Amino acid sequence: MFSDESQAVIDCPSAWRVEVKTKDRETETPAITRYQRGLQTTRRKEVECQTDSFMYVQEELSVDSSELDPEVIKALRRLEPLMCRELERASRSTAFSALSGRYGARGPGGGAGTNSDTAPLRLSVVAGAGSPELDSMPVAALSWSATGAFVAAALGRSDHQDWCLHRGAVCVWNASSARG
């Protein structure tokens, strides 16, 4: 079953005392210049919007059935009950019920802000940090791009769990920008 056998010897010369020839070279890309800046823009703009009452218009759609893919039709028929159920749940949602007390009664669709007498909501666009009200806000969310070049921080309040009209901000920094 077992027997002795001789194998050929393999010679591996040592290379630890051999001098390795190297040459110094430079990189092909220029050195990365980094600047630290507090902010990139300082403009501030305020925008107001007013919602109008919904007008439900029912339109007849005509589609040439010869152009429809049978797989798409099958998928739509399979997804239709799920989509209708989710739309029905959304129409009964109380997500915006806290706003309805401030801006009039809920409209016919169940959503807040469907009356024509609703007050305008104010959207403040802040392009730049540095104001005292933003400096005191905590970071509510932090995100960055896939390459890490852009960093975004959402500033807001976290002392209550309801819809509100407090100001918030989204700050975006370009971390790879060589100019400020």
Brief synopsis:
The chain has helices at residues 70-91, 97-100, 132-135; strands at residues 44-49, 121-126, 139-144, 150-155, 169-174. It folds into two domains: 33-50 and 120-180, no CATH class; 66-119, no CATH class. It is flat.
Q: How would you characterize this protein structure?
A:
This is ANAPC4_WD40 domain-containing protein. The protein has 180 residues and is an alpha+beta fold. The chain has helices spanning 70-91, 97-100, 132-135; strands spanning 44-49, 121-126, 139-144, 150-155, 169-174. It has two domains: 33-50 and 120-180, no CATH class; 66-119, no CATH class. 17% of the residues lie in helices and 17% in strands. Mean pLDDT is 70; it is low at 102-124.
Spell out the key features of this protein:
3 helices; ANAPC4_WD40 domain-containing protein; 2 domains; alpha+beta; 180 residues; 3-stranded antiparallel β-sheet; 5 strands
Choose one word for the global shape.
flat
Number of helices: 3
Lateral strand order in the biggest sheet: 3-4-5
Q: Uncertain regions: pLDDT < 50 for 5+ in a row?
A: 102-124
Number of separate strands: 5
Proportion of residues in helical segments? 10-25%
Main sheet specs? 3 strands, antiparallel
Instruction: Determine the strand fraction and express it as a percent band.
Output: 15-25%
How does the helix and strand content classify structurally? alpha+beta
What is the string of SSEs from the N terminus onward? Answer: EHHEHEEE
Quick check: average pLDDT? 70
Could you tell me how far the N terminus lies from the C terminus, measured between alpha carbons in angstroms?
80 Å
Q: Indicate how many domains the architecture comprises.
A: 2
Radius of gyration, whole Å: 32 Å
